Amino acid sequence: MESESDATISCLDLILKWFTLRFFDTNTTVLMKVLEYLKLLFAMLTREDYHLTELESQRMESAKMFGRYWPCCVMCTQHPRSSLSSWKEPKCLEELGCLIEGYGMNVCQPTPAKSLKEIAVHIGDRDTSVRNAALNTVVAVYNVSGDQVYKLIGNLSEKDMSMLEERIKRSAKKAAAAASAKPSTAERTQRAPR
């Protein structure tokens, strides 16, 4: 790449567009190579002191987001649960919850329904940390999409559904308490020393 840095920079928009399209490919090997190449590409761009144009930045915004969440999404939603170690499962689920809060439902690939059904399976896990992470992730989805979450997660056992509904109620109470704890502008003005 070093010997071809000028050619790479001149075609950067096209390269970034191609990589962005590859993120939605189902071939894990291709995806790993894309992420590996992007690391090398950005290291080269940094050495060259190259600044992305606005269009290139827009292309990379989706790539950066994808590069951050792809490993967790794949591990949580496409690999058998037994293939993850006990500390990876909750971490992946927590990361997905954060990404859903930050970026919305578009991080749930290939479809929100398929991803959320797999996440909801973890609500019944014996491991408390996995169960809590799955509940928190589904609550994050609820905060983004409201009651649609019940349709997206599919059928849950009665026990799992009651745990989820309780967690959603508690999160709504916390949000309401946090909102009421913040003084309004009028209250701050009245309290301000004169």
Automatic annotation (TrEMBL):
Q: Extract one GO molecular function annotation from the record.
A: microtubule plus-end binding
Coiled coil location: none
Renumbered residue ranges of the record's region Disordered: 174-194
Show the InterPro entries listed in the entry. Answer: ARM-like, ARM-type_fold, TOG, XMAP215
Q: Where is the composition biased (Low complexity)?
A: 174-186
According to its UniProt entry, one GO biological process term is: microtubule polymerization
Q: Which domain of life is it from?
A: Eukaryota
Give every TOG domain span.
1-177
Xref: PANTHER family: MICROTUBULE ASSOCIATED PROTEIN XMAP215
Q: From the Swiss-Prot or TrEMBL record, give the protein name.
A: TOG domain-containing protein
The protein's organism comes out as Dissostichus mawsoni
Q: What is the lineage of its organism?
A: Eukaryota, Metazoa, Chordata, Craniata, Vertebrata
